[in-house]
Amino acid sequence: MTALDGAIDLHSHSTASDGQYPAEQVAERAAAAGVAVWALTDHDSVAQLRAGRAAAEAHGLRFVPGIELSVHLDKREVHLLGHFVDPESAELRGFEDLLAEKRRVRMGEMIHKLAALGVALTPEEIEKFSGGKTLARPHVARAMVERGIVGSVKEAFDRFLGEGRPAFVGRHRMPVEDAIALVRGAGGAATIAHPGLNRIERGDLERMKAWGLSGVETYHADHVPSQREKYLKICAELDLVPTAGSDFHGPEVAPGRKLGMVSMSEAELERLEARRG
């Protein structure tokens, strides 16, 4: 690998899941932000990885194909990132189709709950914000913003769509050990996303390492310095790779998260790639 001149950002989203921009525009923005290595990690979807790779090559970026999976650790939701996955993996494609159908059913349940609250949205109003098969709560929130029901995506979650709010509907999630096996079976390396946001502790990471976890997203856009220090220490103790991700969705969805705002070392990237399944 030649020396890199730019940031390494291993966490971003396109319209294949809940991002604001298609993969081509995310790649363009990554290049403009000084990113050298860029991963596209859509929720439960590999639909735009082919387009992402082509766009990355056009902008001189090294592309890391990825995915983000919503999974269960005991009774908690956590998010698992897969990096260097094979976009043509039959297992990933099959899982994507299964999740897309379950998300569509879930969206119908949310529409029904919102209607009971006096908020009438149609599937078409929501689906126009999705560039792929995956429908997610931010698509509902953006439809609510467009209608003037709320002023922001955050307000939609705070009032209606967040866990415990009146229009919340839980989603299908697989056990984290099964998700790690899925990622590794697709040739990827599994990393736990934003552990500070999900209150992941050392014991949790020990268990997940035994199941094949390769790394921890230590340098996340929302982690404060003390959280980064905490997970760096755990990574050193457990021989896990500390990774970096802006978790970019676009300013309408997640304002404040900018591509390339966090980074990791080239040596850490090489260690992560060496741990592919």
UniProtKB/TrEMBL annotation:
Gene3D superfamilies: 1.10.150.650, Metal-dependent hydrolases. GO terms for molecular function: 5'-3' DNA exonuclease activity; 5'-3' RNA exonuclease activity. Residues 8-73 form the Polymerase/histidinol phosphatase N-terminal domain. This is PHP-like protein.
